[in-house]
Specification:
With about 350 residues, this protein is an alpha/beta fold. It contains eleven helices and 14 strands. The N and C termini lie far apart (about 40 Å). The strands form three sheets. It has a seven-stranded parallel sheet, sandwiched between helices.
Length: about 350
């Protein structure tokens, strides 16, 4: 167990942002900001001198861009990194690249002119830095190639299920963008319809769905309100909106909602899972993957009680074993599995009914 405050190094080219982040993080007694750096070269030296537990890293940096620095860091001295990104299309793409390289999580640039926004930002920043300190990070041999399907083997067992009768549901948070990519990369093109809730901002969910689509044999899209759920397709909840599954006649459809966040999240995994439990029940299979907090644990329990097959990612393969750990504590998971086995089990139970 960790003793003492989390030691943080703040890396950002903006003196104003550095000052603000030092103030926000330093206000929490569980965090000690041990230093700041204006560019990756200064950061490299300070990492050696100060041995921080967590790094906050700006995406756009002078002299060496944030991705290049992160790639070198994760190859030579892997450590927990929380990216600080802009809520733009370009910022989303770079941040998703950073998560693929091993960054634990990300926060958006703070809203300097809105007091409420700054308070919300501080809460998220502190929470993510603290969880990052306990995250599992590993050395990378090289940058991900971006090759289609990620080099993963698809499910090769006999299918034989009527795909319109089966539904898969996946939920995740910190570490989830890559975990979901790995699960979908192992799915065949005719897998059952799959609904996904990942904690992500509105500007990021579209690029995230596009990235998943490039790495999957399935067709992956950002969910639209009223959209029918089709076999061979996966539907990602839009950032900032709840995704529910509803039944209309013989088909399931997506239903988007702007109602209040649940467990501080919108989209919420609990909201998605509970709707799947209500309208699909035993015809569903669900997996709760890496993420901080407990969103999705109660929804997974509702699914299990409704007769669905339920799975949780194991601690050893999770970046943060918060959400799946909470599900295990509630006895919501029928099986606890390494990430690499989850796609196979989701499909196997779907095939066997």
């Amino acid at each position: 167990m960790r003793s003492g405050p989390v030691r943080v190094l703040v890396v950002d080219d903006s003196a104003l942002i550095r000052k603000l982040m030092v103030e926000l993080l330093g206000a929490d007694p569980g965090i000690e900001v041990v230093g700041t750096a204006a560019d990756p070269y200064i950061a490299r030296d300070k990492i050696k001198q100060l041995a921080p537990d967590v790094l906050t890293l700006d995406v756009e940096m002078p002299r060496m861009d944030g991705l290049t620095f992160l790639r070198n860091l994760m190859r030579l001295r892997p450590m927990p990194v929380v990216m600080v990104s802009t809520l733009t299309q370009a910022g989303a793409q770079v941040t998703l690249d950073a998560l693929a390289l091993g960054a634990v999580d990300f926060v958006a640039k703070p809203k300097l002119d809105v007091a409420r926004g700054l308070t919300e930002y501080a809460t998220a920043l502190i929470e993510k830095v603290k969880h990052a300190a306990h995250a599992r990070v590993s050395r990378i041999a090289a940058a991900p190639t971006g090759a289609a399907h990620g080099g993963a083997a698809p499910y090769d067992g006999p299918l034989g299920y009527r795909t319109t009768d089966r539904l898969l549901a996946i939920g995740a948070s910190a570490g989830g963008t890559e975990a979901i990519r790995e699960v979908l990369s192992r799915m065949p093109a005719d897998a059952p319809a799959t609904v996904i809730a990942q904690h992500i901002p509105a500007a990021f969910s579209g690029p995230f769905a596009e990235r998943l689509n490039r790495h999957s044999r399935m067709t992956v899209v950002e969910a639209g309100d009223g959209q029918p759920l089709l076999a061979g397709h996966a539907y990602v909840a839009p950032g900032g909106r709840h995704l529910r599954v509803v039944r209309s006649g013989a088909r399931w459809h997506c239903r988007l909602g702007d109602d209040e966040p649940v467990r501080r999240h919108r989209p919420s995994v609990d909201v998605l899972f509970e709707s799947v439990a209500k309208y699909a029940g035993a015809n569903a299979s669900a997996a709760l993957l890496t993420g901080m907090g407990d969103d999705g644990a109660r929804g997974l329990l509702a699914l299990r009680r409704a007769g669905a097959s339920t799975f949780a990612q194991d601690e050893a393969s999770s970046v943060v074993w918060g959400m799946p750990g909470a599900a295990v504590a509630l006895d919501a998971a029928g099986e606890v599995l390494p990430l690499a086995q989850i796609a196979h089990r989701l499909l196997a139970v779907a095939a066997n009914g």
